[in-house]
Design a protein that fits this description.
Helices cover 40% and strands 17% of the residues. The strands form four sheets. Strands 1, 2, 3, 4, 5, 6, 7, 10, 11 and 12 form a ten-stranded mixed sheet that branches. The chain has a seven-stranded parallel sheet with strand order 15-14-13-16-17-18-19, with helices on both faces. The two termini are 53 Å apart.
Length: 729
């Protein structure tokens, strides 16, 4: 019912003469009002995912009953934090009494067990609350009580002395952790060697955002970024640097803690010690990060109250003045006046380029070659020191792929913010942009006009391939009188895009030169230099892929299949699969009858599925790990394309995986100085003979493997980064 209703409403919505933004707002409103009716529809599922928060599961029931009964209950229910392995992390939970809240914190840790090995120590700061010592009865929980009240800061410093784990994790006792709380923090530390401190997304008890990292202004006043807002918004859900993170949930490299001698005692008993530690960490060459995939519920105010005029909270004002006195030169040099340039301040990106990247949806790099290119472009742009905001044309949060970009530090706009439209976003942020990259014709046509209204430049167009040229080749193989007008319409569309773009990019010089020729022949430009960047109407080639080479490809005798990897919803790949099975493989099977052919890749059409038989395996989508294993089993990689355009991902990928390749001239399009890296054949008989020759002559097989390996070396991350560096300089 849901899918039928959703499909019907979608067709009606498409027919309405409204803007895309208006239609997206209508869809969002429909999902809010009548969500269950849409259950099962992919669009509704993505909407739900974009709204989803980690389950808070607050253990309020534990706050009732005697301490003895609650400890016994926890043990009977299987509470056990013991480990036989050496821990990488020691979790310190400083407290001043509050047995019930501390137990709730511990129960949440047990409920959401981390994969990384850790140990827990509760440190009670001489509260004289006798029940606190009972926490030490819980399996795997260490407990110590200070003889005298030291205050939060000194209690932490004292407890951490002599810590022999790789990381120190400070966790307030008035918190409850969510799934992934510790693993996400450690994963970020492992990925970023420069990271010395990383903090969690803090959520209030009511589910609203409490803090997504902190901003410090020139006057030493601070913002808990995002406080009170919806925690699922795109603004708060990507990894980034931050001025400071709260000591309520803070992972620190033990070596850094020791170098800095812990928190500075000038801030005793509490407040501003976490901000000061972050500034000192940066002065020692470390960075401070915010990790949104670590979520912690913080029952704020239970430790020191909320009144700034009394109790421990009164030290907040005093210590802010001390912080300002110490760090005034840094604040004046590197920070903004209060509330100004928040776009830059939230992620400390004032010295970076800011690039807006638009494509039809969040890239799915293990499903299609275009997505892989976009994904690698984004990584390269980031690697040269730029901040990337990604805007998917469909506006949806993809629960499988959006987090992959966010974890890399890419800001992905989705949900209600995307529905409000690019114009509103540009009104707030266009002044910070250094360039915009638009991928594919539909995306360019949809967004280029509004970008021009805000004078954003340069506008860079990446075309993936020249569509009309590919369509022309298809028509030559599959004659269709109706295609003539479609080809001309596409040619005119692409010509219009090339005229309007500031820079035009394609995977090969062959395509870039075709752009130049087309524009010259139309009289669009008198001087069109492919070698000069950032001038109007320029076309150039850019490396489309990055590949990590297979470090240990199996020997020939351990391989047993032939492989063709492709996204089969793309017409050239569907045609190639059919041609391969019906025209080429019978000739190969006549010599090697037991060989299996694997057609590997996402979205096989009905026509491709019908090719399956005992000697032909149609796998459908496979993970990267599964694909790597299939390549390890492959005797020869086949790319039998009869039409298409652009540099082919599957060609370079096979070479990088150490699999000798047989392909067609179309498969080798755009590859320069590649005459001997693969066997190239245009006709079925010649193609089959090339496969048989490789299988029959091991020496030739190994020679071909080495040539392919050597050629794939040029498709490195460093080469792509250098290309984008030149382009965005």
């Amino acid at each position: 019912m849901g899918s039928w209703l959703a499909g019907t409403l979608r067709r009606l919505a498409l027919a309405l003469p409204l803007s895309r933004a208006s239609k997206m707002r209508m869809a969002t409103l429909a999902f809010k009002i009548a969500g269950p009716l849409f259950r099962g529809d992919p669009a509704y599922d993505r909407y739900i995912a974009s709204k989803r928060l980690p389950s808070l599961n607050l253990d309020s029931n534990l706050r009732q009953g005697s301490p003895e009964a609650l400890i016994a209950q926890a043990i009977n229910e299987g509470f056990d934090l013991r480990t036989k392995e050496k821990p990488r992390v020691r979790v310190f939970i400083p407290s001043f009494g509050q047995f019930h809240h501390t137990l709730a914190c511990l129960r949440s840790i047990d409920k959401h067990r981390a994969k990384v090995v850790f140990e827990v120590l509760v440190v009670d700061d001489a509260s004289n609350e006798t029940a606190m010592a009972m926490l030490g009865l819980l399996p795997g929980v260490g407990f110590r009580a200070n003889t005298f009240n030291l205050g939060f800061l000194q209690s932490c410093n004292d407890a951490v002395q002599g810590c022999d784990t790789e990381f120190i994790y400070l966790l307030n006792n008035d918190t409850e952790v969510c799934q992934g709380w510790l693993d996400a923090l450690v994963e970020l530390m492992d990925r970023h060697e420069d990271c010395g401190v990383v903090g969690s997304k803090l959520i209030s008890s009511d589910g609203r955002l409490q803090e997504a990292g902190g901003i410090l202004w020139q006057d030493a006043s601070a913002w808990n970024w995002g406080r009170g807002d919806e925690a699922s918004r795109y603004l708060y859900n990507f990894v980034r640097e931050t001025d400071y993170v709260s000591g309520a949930s803070m992972l620190i490299r033990t070596k850094l803690w020791e170098q800095l001698k812990g928190f500075d005692t000038r801030y005793a008993p509490a407040y501003c010690e976490d901000s000061d530690f972050a500034f000192r960490a940066r002065s020692h060459g470390s960075r401070v990060y915010y990790q949104p995939f670590s979520c912690v519920v913080h029952h704020e105010g239970l430790s020191h109250g909320t009144d700034l005029n009394q109790g421990g909270k009164s030290y907040q004002i005093v210590n802010q003045k001390r912080f300002l006195e110490r760090w005034r030169p840094v604040l004046e040099k590197d920070h903004f006046p209060n509330g100004q340039h928040v776009y830059l301040a939230r992620g400390r990106t004032q010295s970076k380029n800011h690039i807006l990247f638009l494509d039809h949806y969040v890239p799915q790099p293990d499903r299609d070659a275009g997505s892989r290119t976009v994904s690698e472009f984004i990584k390269a742009i980031q690697a040269i020191g730029s901040h990337v905001t990604f805007w998917p044309h469909n506006g949806w949060y993809d629960p499988d792929y959006t987090p992959l970009l966010q974890s890399l530090g890419v800001e992905v706009v989705y949900g209600d913010d995307a529905a409000r439209g690019l114009e509103i976003w540009l009104d707030q942020n266009a002044a910070y942009l250094n360039a915009v990259v638009l991928s594919r014709p539909d995306v360019f046509e949809a967004f280029e006009p509004v970008l021009r209204r805000f004078s954003v430049q340069p506008i860079i167009y990446y075309g993936h391939d020249i569509h009309f040229a590919r369509m022309q080749m298809q028509k030559e193989l599959q004659p269709d009188s109706h295609m003539t007008s479609s080809i001309e319409r596409m040619r005119q569309r692409e010509m219009d895009i090339w005229r309007r773009a500031d820079i035009v990019l394609y995977p090969s010089n062959e395509e870039a030169n075709l752009v130049i020729q087309q524009l010259k022949s139309s009289g669009s430009t008198d001087s069109f230099d492919v070698h000069k960047a950032k001038a109007p109407n320029k076309a150039m080639a850019i490396q489309p892929y990055v590949f990590e080479q297979n470090k240990a490809p199996p020997a020939l005798e351990r391989r047993k299949i032939l492989i063709f990897v492709a996204g089969f919803a793309h017409p050239p790949n569907e045609d190639a699969a059919d041609w391969l099975v019906h025209k080429i493989m019978p000739k190969v099977w006549s010599v090697f009858p037991s060989l299996t052919l694997a057609l590997v890749g996402s979205n096989p059409t009905d026509k491709v599925k019908c090719l399956a038989k005992s000697s032909v395996q149609v796998t459908g989508y496979v993970t990267d790990r599964e694909l790597a294993e299939l390549y390890n089993q492959a005797l020869v990689a086949l790319v039998p394309l009869r039409f298409g355009a652009g540099v082919k991902n599957k060609v370079i990928e096979a070479l990088a995986q150490g699999v000798p390749l047989v392909t067609t001239p179309i498969g080798m399009q755009g590859l320069e100085q590649a005459d001997d890296v693969a066997k190239v054949a245009e006709h079925p008989e010649e193609f089959a003979k090339s496969v048989v020759d490789l299988l029959s002559h091991p020496k030739s097989w190994y020679e071909q493997q080495k040539k392919g390996f050597d050629y794939a070396n040029r498709f490195s991350a460093q080469a792509m980064q250098a290309a984008w560096q030149r382009l965005l300089r």
